[in-house]
Design brief:
This protein is α+β, with helices and mostly antiparallel strands. It has one helix and four strands. A four-stranded antiparallel sheet has the order 1-2-3-4, covered by helices on one side. The chain is globular and about 30 Å long. The termini are far apart.
Length: about 70
């Protein structure tokens, strides 16, 4: 049950990428720790953002380019 909650959370966060001008189908969400996620391009793993989820919400509080 906890695993499906994480999946739902990641699906929601992925759909919210469009608020930052990113096409959700071009990215995968990888949970790092706590509220920190790696937002990795599906064709180039070296191109990624780091995102921080808002507490108690399935939306981003911060997202920044980490590597290209």
């Amino acid at each position: 049950m906890i695993q499906s909650a994480k999946s739902e959370n990641q699906v929601t966060l992925q759909s919210n990428l469009s608020q930052f001008g990113l096409n959700p189908i071009d990215w995968k969400i990888i949970h790092e720790e706590g509220r920190i996620y790696r937002i990795e391009n599906i064709t180039d793993a070296d191109f990624y953002f780091v995102g921080i989820k808002k507490p108690l919400q399935n939306s981003w509080s911060l997202m920044e380019l980490a590597s290209i």
